[in-house]
């Protein structure tokens, strides 16, 4: 059975209207989109370094990847080719990849769903239409605080990615250094 209609404060049969252009939700939606784009750029730049050593050549590959899943698959495969990278670091990157998929799903709903307000409840939400094994069709209530929380999740996963990447770089460099005469 489909989950349809309104959730939370919305009333059955309520009409929904586009938010005004200056609504503060739009600022947060834009910030979520921008922060996620920066995260994917950071992943891409590491792939470019390991795969091609030239950003432009690497960009020809990573421009074909949609979302974090394919990016992390490629990156993890590349990391496994590097000498000296510990299994612990690879596992940490794998775990981060899995967690990033969950955040990406939240980001996708925030960015791709239509944001509206209810004519009777005056509440803001987004109209969700998804069918991942179960149809979700209807208004979902979301606050600015939720958007800020997702921004915090993106900031945290970016921080953890950089920490893991520094560790991988250190391990790789140390293996290279030991091979030097």
Rg for CA atoms: 21 Å
Helix content: 55-70%
End-to-end C-alpha gap: 67 Å
Overall number of structural domains: 1
Shape verdict: elongated
Major beta sheet, strand line-up: 1-5-4-3-2
**How many strands, which pairing sense, and closed or not: the largest β-sheet?**
5 strands, mixed
Q: Tell me what portion of residues adopts beta-strand conformation.
A: 5-15%
Give the strand tally.
5
What are the segments in which pLDDT stays under 50 over at least 5 consecutive residues?
Answer: 1-6
Total count of helical runs of at least 4 residues: 5
Mean pLDDT, rounded to whole units?
A: 90
Structural class: alpha+beta
- Give the SSE order as H and E letters: EEHHHHEEEH
3D architecture notes:
The protein is α+β, with helices and mostly antiparallel strands. It has one domain. It contains five helices and five strands, in the order ββααααβββα. It has a five-stranded mixed β-sheet with strand order 1-5-4-3-2. Helix 1 packs antiparallel against helix 4. The longest helix has 36 residues. It is elongated, with a radius of gyration of 21 Å.
